[in-house]
Specification:
- With 130 residues, the chain is mainly α.
- The protein has one domain.
- Helices cover 57% and strands 8% of the residues.
- The chain contains five helices and two strands.
- The chain has a two-stranded antiparallel ribbon.
- α1 runs antiparallel to α2 and α2 packs across α4.
- The radius of gyration is 16 Å and the shape is elongated.
């Protein structure tokens, strides 16, 4: 089985789509919550945590792709077993590092044959074209 690794441009476009989606979801949730009186703080925190922190790791671990990845026909898979998704824990590590390092994480993509970013190395993942 020949693996085709995703390009940096498709990865950047996927992140852009996911960012727009997250902003829209946050706006919709915020607007919805304003229609209710006395929404507990823990409900607000929980909803925004799900959107901002858990969206990427949940989608990547369950489906192998976020909405942005799917739109650009790329998948995040396990480096050791490319037919499998990475675990939630690996996806969470991968996302936190991607979020923390930002564009710096992408600097290693052109420097290796598997086009792996720093966050892919930390999460034990590869990003493939479908």
């Amino acid at each position: 089985m020949t693996l085709t690794f995703a390009t940096i441009s498709s990865r950047i476009k996927a992140v852009f789509v996911d960012t727009v989606l997250i902003v829209i979801l946050a706006y919709l949730i915020s607007e919805t919550l304003t229609r209710f009186e006395d929404v507990p703080v823990y409900v607000r925190i929980s909803l925004f945590t799900i959107i901002f922190v858990l969206y990427d790791p949940l989608f990547v671990s369950l489906f192998g792709a976020t909405v942005g990845h799917s739109y650009f026909k790329i998948k995040v898979k396990s480096k050791k077993q490319p037919q499998k998704n990475i675990s939630f824990f690996s996806a969470l590590i991968r996302y936190m590092l991607k979020y923390t390092l930002g564009w710096i994480s992408l600097l290693t993509i052109s420097g290796n044959s598997e086009k792996r970013a720093i966050h892919d190395m930390a999460g034990g993942s590869i990003v493939l074209e479908e």
